[in-house]
Design brief:
By secondary structure, this protein is mainly alpha-helical. The chain has 1 helix and no strands. It starts with 5 loop residues before the first helix and ends with a helix. It is a single-pass type IV membrane protein. Keywords: Coiled coil, Membrane, Protein transport, Transmembrane, Transmembrane helix, Transport.
Length: about 110
């Protein structure tokens, strides 16, 4: 037991500890770089999503405006359709009245 070299053993442990510490430091540095890259990617994605959100909001506003325009157009077309129907009814009534007047005049002319 007297031949055991404690200094060599201690040096070996210090060297092993140092190697472990260096590997841990390198691993932490890699993890830090990956975290920074991930953060940058996250910022880029968030910026892209913000641009897409604004684009979608603009599209939504345009669609709402188009929907309002379609509603107005639809009500105008309904009003025009009603007016066409009323005009046809008035025209039919005028034609019926003219026919009745003609029949009345013929009756008066033929009865005298």
């Amino acid at each position: 037991m007297g031949d055991y070299d404690w200094d060599q053993h201690n040096r070996q442990q210090v060297l092993e500890g140092r190697q472990i510490l260096e590997r841990t430091s390198a691993s932490l540095a890699r993890s830090n770089r990956i975290a920074i890259e991930t953060e940058q990617t996250g910022h880029e994605v968030m910026s892209e999503l913000e641009v897409q959100r604004e684009s979608l909001l603009r599209s939504q506003r345009r669609l709402e405006n188009a929907n309002d325009g379609l509603s107005k157009s639809s009500s105008i077309l309904r009003a025009m359709s009603r007016n066409v129907l009323y005009n046809k009814l008035i025209l039919v009534m005028i034609i019926v009245m003219e026919v009745l007047i003609l029949v009345g005049l013929l009756y008066l002319k033929l009865s005298h």
